[in-house]
Specification:
Layout lengths: L29 H7 L16 H15 L5 E4 L5 E3 L2 E2 L6 H7 L7 E7 L2 E8 L9 H4 L5 H4 L5 H8 L2 E4 L3 H6 L5 E3 L11 H10 L5 H23 L1 H5 L4 H15 L2 E2 L4 E4 L20 E6 L1 E2 L8 E6 L6 H18 L10 H16 L7 H5 L43 E4 L2 E4 L13 E4 L2 E6 L2 E4 L8 H12 L2
Parallel strand pairs: 1-7, 5-6
Antiparallel strand pairs: 1-4, 2-3, 4-5, 8-11, 9-10, 10-12, 13-16, 14-15, 16-17
Helix pairs in contact: 2-3, 9-11, 12-13
């Protein structure tokens, strides 16, 4: 990786943090600066956007503005977080900002100013450093020699159908606003985040429009093909590379066919499968294991899928593994049947829990009856299913998380919502309350659903649900 500071004549290494004052900076050397300013053709600086994105973002801004008539709104896109020292993670804009703009530029801010019955939108962007400017070769954040061809304000304005100004004008623009509501990473002594604006945006994003639904279909389709790519690598993982080989396979697929993984990929084999968020992915894959894969591709428009299946590493479930998978499948199907308009968001959760509790009772695992376990003062079955079993899905894997209880868990499902259903059973290897044959078995089934006017569509239906179907699906891809 190139050092973030340019080299100095007479030195073979990078400029130190405190440059030697006896040596001039490259930008101060007339010959070098003049030579670097000429002889460059114009690269393609077209911003990365998807057809329909500007129109969708404009409609999103109109929906938001209608709820805040006469009120100024400010939404910041953020910057890449520091990984360590002077290295950063890849930049991914704030989800609310992306929803309102379709812009992927770093350090950008959207300002919605009241105007008549609506709002005028202006996007503020830092200027790229191009040939002829010292930052072209010296600015590791914005110099085109460092970051590649960078769209400027005019390029973004054309692509987004939006007024775009330079970031240097933002402070002055903010001082002209009266009591603005602000969200995103733009906190100063004078401007604090607005919980009201964050909540409103989260609740607006619950209902996806046609453009968003198309993005989510793409995310799910790419994820299903990613599952196929991972399962094809099971024979190699069994030979030694283990969980990390499977994780890397999916993440390469996600980077190739999308923006990358929508969240930290979970590959849990054997005793790791019951760990709800096993993102270390550093264990072996053994023939007797089940392998829990929880994975999602994020599209280049930043919409993510979230799908889980659990596969037998050898290609065939054992009797005990099948027993657990069958009960989870039964709970999953009961939950799917509760996803439709007019049903409460918690209905599918309760339906799955009833199946799980009665199934565990039938196995003799509960210290009380299934009915007592399901009571508010019981919940004994939750020892093996401590998490919730579904959430909204969209720009974030746990989408709309800033919503109020009344708009989320306490609300009825409505057409245009996209959500997950994901019951499971997680028997840890060190859990002495279960028989030995169940210890170290973790099974989760997760699908992504679109609520339709008359029911629900399972977007991830191309992946089998039942144990036998998963075995056959694996066999077609591994030959085992």
């Amino acid at each position: 990786m190139a050092d973030r500071t340019p080299t100095t004549p007479g030195r073979s290494g990078p400029v130190p943090t405190e440059p030697d004052p006896r040596l001039p900076r490259l930008g101060d050397i007339p010959g070098f600066a003049a030579y670097m300013s000429q002889g460059w053709a114009t690269p393609d600086r077209t911003p990365p956007t998807t057809p329909g994105a500007p129109e969708a973002a404009a409609a999103h801004r109109a929906r938001l503005g209608a709820l805040f008539p006469g009120r100024a709104l400010v939404v910041a896109g953020g910057s890449a977080p520091v990984r360590s020292n002077d290295t950063r993670y890849d930049f991914r804009p704030d989800s609310n900002f992306a929803w309102l703009t379709g812009c992927s530029a770093e350090d950008a801010v959207l300002v919605l100013r009241p105007s008549g019955t609506g709002h005028d939108a202006t996007l503020y962007l830092p200027p790229p450093a191009r040939p002829g400017e010292p930052g072209f070769f010296s600015d590791a954040a914005y110099g085109e020699l460092w970051v590649g061809a960078a769209p400027g304000p005019g390029d973004w304005a054309d692509a987004l159908q939006l007024e775009v100004r330079l970031a240097g004008e933002l402070e002055s623009a903010l001082t002209r606003l009266t009591d603005p509501l602000i969200t995103g990473p733009l906190t100063t002594d004078d401007h604090k985040p607005s919980a009201e604006l964050e909540r409103t945006l989260a609740e607006l994003r619950m209902i996806k429009d046609d453009w968003e639904i198309a993005r989510l279909r793409e995310a799910v389709d790419r994820t299903v093909s990613g599952f196929a790519a991972v399962v094809e690598e099971f024979p190699t993982a069994l030979e030694g590379p283990g969980e990390r080989w499977l994780q890397g396979t999916f993440e390469r697929h996600a980077r190739t066919y999308g923006n990358g993984p929508g969240y930290a990929t979970i590959v849990g084999s054997g005793a790791h499968a019951p760990t709800l968020h096993w993102v270390r992915c550093d264990g072996p894959v053994r023939p007797e294991d089940v392998v829990l894969l929880d994975m999602g591709v994020e599209t280049r428009d930043l919409y993510t899928a979230d799908v889980t299946r659990t596969f037998p590493a050898s290609g065939r479930f054992s009797a005990a593994q099948t027993q657990v998978h069958d009960l989870v499948e039964k709970a999953h199907r009961a939950a799917l049947a509760q996803v439709r308009p007019g049903k409460r968001f918690t209905d599918f959760h309760q339906a799955a829990m009833e199946v799980i509790a009665h199934g565990l009772d039938d196995w003799g695992l509960l210290p009380v009856s299934a009915d007592e376990a399901l009571s508010d003062r019981g919940q004994h079955h939750r020892r093996w299913l401590v998490c919730g079993i579904g959430h909204h899905l969209g720009l974030d894997v746990h989408d709309c998380a800033q919503s109020s209880y009344e708009a989320y868990q306490g609300a009825e499902m409505a057409p245009g919502m996209v959500l997950t259903v994901e019951p499971g059973l997680y028997f840890h290897a060190h859990d002495l309350n279960v028989p030995p044959e169940l210890r170290g078995v973790g099974i989760r089934i997760e699908d992504d659903l679109l609520v339709t006017p008359d029911g629900a569509e399972v977007l991830s239906a191309d992946l089998p649900l039942d144990a036998t179907g998963l075995e056959r699906w694996m066999e077609r891809r591994t030959g085992r």
